Structure formats: structure tokens, C-alpha cells
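Reader question, answered in our methods column.
A reader sent in the components of a multi-part assembly and asked whether the whole thing could be modeled at once rather than chain by chain. We filled in our standard form and ran it. Here is what they sent:
COMPLEX SIZE: two components
ENTRIES:
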Amino acid sequence: MPASKMRDTHIALAHGNGGRMMRELIEQIFAPALANPTLDTHADAVALPRIAGELMVTTDGFTVQPLEFPGGDIGSLAVHGTVNDLAVAGATPLYLTLNAFIEEGFEIACLRRLAESIGRAARACGVAVVAGDTKVVGRGECDGVYFATTGIGARRQDAQLGTRHIRPGDVVLVSGPVGDHGADVMLAREEFGMRGDLRSDAASVLPYAQALLSINGLRFMRDPTRGGLATVLNDIVNATGHGVRVCEAAIPIRDQVQSVCELLGYDPLYLACEGQLVAVVAATAADEAVEVLRRLAPECARIGRVDESSTRVVLETAFGGERVLDELEDDPLPRIC
Amino acid sequence: MPASKMRDTHIALAHGNGGRMMRELIEQIFAPALANPTLDTHADAVALPRIAGELMVTTDGFTVQPLEFPGGDIGSLAVHGTVNDLAVAGATPLYLTLNAFIEEGFEIACLRRLAESIGRAARACGVAVVAGDTKVVGRGECDGVYFATTGIGARRQDAQLGTRHIRPGDVVLVSGPVGDHGADVMLAREEFGMRGDLRSDAASVLPYAQALLSINGLRFMRDPTRGGLATVLNDIVNATGHGVRVCEAAIPIRDQVQSVCELLGYDPLYLACEGQLVAVVAATAADEAVEVLRRLAPECARIGRVDESSTRVVLETAFGGERVLDELEDDPLPRIC
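And here is the structure of the entire assembly that came back:
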């Protein structure tokens, strides 16, 4: 049966009803953008080729507002976010599933751009979107589009990572400047008229993670998304019972991000990154780790250490003082990812 | 660090910020409800035990309104929907991931009930929820809660299923009365004051699917959700190029569902089921398939056959006439699943 050409310009409730319009939406928007040999948009479930190594799985939802921002969009974010969760767990990402929740009246041209962005990001990361589902909800029951992605990967045999491996004296590294994504989305959202060249760092951290996996003494990796660097450091404290001391002067932050934060009253240490990773390595492996990482991430830095004498995250300020970085309480920037 | 007791009664934006309140939400609502040995709510990705057999994956989003209805809720539906997609593909469901999109102001007691319903349904189906993610969006940016689940299973070696195996003359079966879920949700939504004992059929079809897999001559199975029985039959026509003829008198429909549909102007053949399956079997295997299925599903029925002489779904009416069952155009009942 020849597919009729999709002529609608905006999403209707009938694009979610299981009938003709839903079939056209999937066949004409999602299937071509995501095309790969494993994807079968007509099947209830798809069979995956055999995976060598231990299977790892993760899932993430995406509600960022605005949907498109300098440096990325909710589509590329939905790929990178899940790829990054697998990468920092020591896995090679292989397959994604995709859920879309779409608001009635959403512009189909925008949906096409987002689907194409998902396809591009997935190909660049070497992952295939193998299954998907779309739901359409009424006007005012969703804000444009939300995505959820589940990632399946294979753990590298040499990856023995986790907070349980962290020891006092271990060194904390970050792959590059923090807060770019948060500051960028904040500006894109608020239209402060001070854009400059600030862009989200939204990207895959897979190359960084894979380079660090060669380091004997790598303990733990995480990508600092919601809640930023300070939240990852608090996660380490909560999981290990040890404190973390970081040096303010050593933490890379772009001048522009710093300025935006000072102006608007945000702390860049709590702003989301979407293309950085935090790593904890044994003190004896720190120099090698920085050297390996610097080849790919020239702005990476050694920012602190795990500290037995405290059970907090302590920031040594540029003025010689100390400040505790507590867990986030209120939400400074909802829908950042 | 001792977890502080969650005292909030409603979801705040800060329950999605990556900080303390999100940690409490996950540790105190989701983790206990979903508890299983593989789930690790602190990890970026979890490692799965080795899976024997070909890996199969599927994903589904859930937006049903109301969230709780006679016979189920959006939580149990999110488990059964994905379990059923794996089951009809000939796989044994093993693992689920769960995404929750939650509206600011949502009642935490209801979220707890839904999480517990997910846990109960998962345990009953023999699947473990191994990874999850929660996002909180502002008031009016979501309608209560939406879920997405991705399912991972292992294909049984004897399962060679798919529309490509369907041949003219094959017989179409259904496991029981159609339209229960759609009619039930419609009533729960509209408060027509005519509830009676109508309940959603929301349930796992895994036992039916596994019983039918023993039949030599089983070609294809599908659970008729959005768009109902008529949509599955149209999917068969679209995929095979052959017509399907079904006999109205043979299709099981509860009197109550029929009455509700007549009163409100719906066609039960297009109403969602959430606990039935449609199977296509070789004509020579049809008697055996019905016999096997009837032990588990006493109301199962042989409803029609694949028909080379047409390329439509044709209903032979109770009055000796014929009616074409076309693909759905508009959406009679949005947010049915």
C-alpha cells in the first residue's frame, strides 16, 4: 500500500490513536530520521544482535525548555544524556529506545528537526535507536514535547567502577568548564539580550570515559547534569561517608558563565553540564589520568580530593576561606534537561 | 547519613532537581516499591545478569486518564503494556526501566500508590524494574503523571513470529472480549453514573502467549491496545497485502460494553483492550490453538481468516451484510493508555 504523503503541519490527537495518522507520523518523521538495520517500526519488540560483555542498562527523561538552544536541542540531549550515563558506568553504548510525549498542536516541522537531531547524535555516538513509541496528549497536558530514552550497552571487562571503590586521598578531576549547559539554557529561556557566544556543552563524554578506562586506579565517573558539579560531589559524600575538598581556583568555569551567574544570582557549581565528566582516581594515578584526558579535553583539571577528616563537600575559596557545598534544596532552574 | 523522613504531601519542582528532595523521593517512594536485587537507584547504569537467548527490546509510553480506574491504574498498565509487547513477540519479559514525568503539585500519596502498583504488577509478571528516572515539570506542563517503560526479554527459540509468516487461509483468534479497557476508562472519565461491574481487562497476556508458542503453525500475535481489534487487523492487512474477513457474531464483546458503545456512539472493535491478544495461526493448527488457549482464556474465539480476495478488513455483519473496518482516522478516545 503506497504511503500517503503527510500534509498536516501540526500534531493532532489522532497522531496518537494507533491508526493511519500515527502510522504516517512514525513512517514519515521518525523512521527516516532514525533509520538503522535493527529498527522495525512495525514490530511489537525487536531482536538485538548478540552483545559481547556484561549488559548494562540506563534510562533518562528529558523536558528541557526551550526545546532548541545554542549548542543542542532536546533531541540531541536525549541521546547524549543516556549515552553518557552508560559511558561513565564503563559501558560502550549500543542501543537506545525512544519515547515521545507530544502536545496536540505541536509543529510537525519542529518534530522533524528534533527527530533528525536524535538520528544525527545517535549515529555520531555509534548507537542505534531500535524501538520507539509516541503518545499525543491534549493542549496544555504537556509543554511541546518530552522524550525518554533507555540505553543498552556492554560493560568493558576492565571497568570496575563505583563509589564503593573510592578511598580517602583519591583525587577528583573534571573534564572541562562547568555550568555551560545551565547558563546557556537560562539565557536562551530568559532572553536577557546577553547571549554572546555562550553555548551548551551538550555532547557525548564517551571518548573521555573510554580514555580514562585505560587508567589503572580509576574509581568512579559521573556526568554532572541536574544539580551540577556540587551535586555529584554530594553524591560521593552520601555514598562513601567521606568528605570531598575542592579548590575553587582549580575548577574551570568560563568567564561568561561566571558573569551570568553573578548577575542573576546563581552558583555555577550547581548548574548542569551536559558534556563533562567528573572522575575520581587513586592519587598515584592522577597525573596519568590528567595527561590522558588532556589530549581530548584540554581544559580538564584536578580540582580536589576525597577527605577522611570531614563528611561534607568543602570548597576552599579563592580568598583562603572555606564554604560548605550542601545538597540542593530548592530548584534554581527547573527543566534544565 | 540517616535518611530524613519525607514529610511533603505534594510534589514540588525541587523533587526533580537532582538534590536532597529528589534523592528522598527516589529512596522513599520508588526504591521500596520496586525493590529487587538488580535495582540500584544510585548508579548511572545497572549491570544485568546474563540473559540466555536472543535479546528483545520494546518501549511504551503511558498517559491514561484517569490515572486510576476500575481494574487497574497507569502504574500497572505501564508494566502490563510493555510485558505484553514482549510476550506477543515470543519473548519472556525479564527487565523493565521506568521513566516518570510528574507534575508539580501532584499528590505524593497517589504517586506512592502508583509506584506500589508498578512493583506488584512487575513481581506478578516475573520482571524486575532495574533502572528509573523521574522528571518534575511545572503545573500545567503535564497532567498528573506520565510513565514510560522499556522492556528487555529473551526470545524463545521456537518463536518464529511476524506478519511475514502470515498466509491466506490462516485463522484469526482473539483471547477474550474486546473493548473492556476502552469502555471502562471512558466511563471512569465521564462519570456517566452507569458503572455497573465493568472493569478494565488490564492484565498480562504472557500466559496466553506462552501457551500459544507451543503450537506449530502459530504465525503472529499482537495485543490490541490503542485502536483496538480493528487496528490490529488493519496492521495485518498493511503488512501482508492480504485482506482479513471477520465474523461479527463470533467476536466476543460483553453486553455492557456493547450497551455503553451504542449509547455513546463508539464502535467496540476500535476500543482498546489491555489484557487480550489476537493470534494468527495456520488453518490446520486452529483447533489445537483454540483448545490450548481456552484452558486459560475460556472466552477466546475464532473470529475470522486471512483472505486473499481482498485488501481490506471486512466484517461479516450479524445481518448477513458486509462492512469495511477502515484504519482509524480521528481519535475517539485520546489518552486511553
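What stands out: Helices of chain A lie at 20-34, 74-88, 108-125, 180-190, 206-212, 228-240, 255-264, 286-296. The domain at 13-155 of chain A is CATH 3.30.1330.10 (60s Ribosomal Protein L30; Chain: A;).
Send us your own complexes using the same form.
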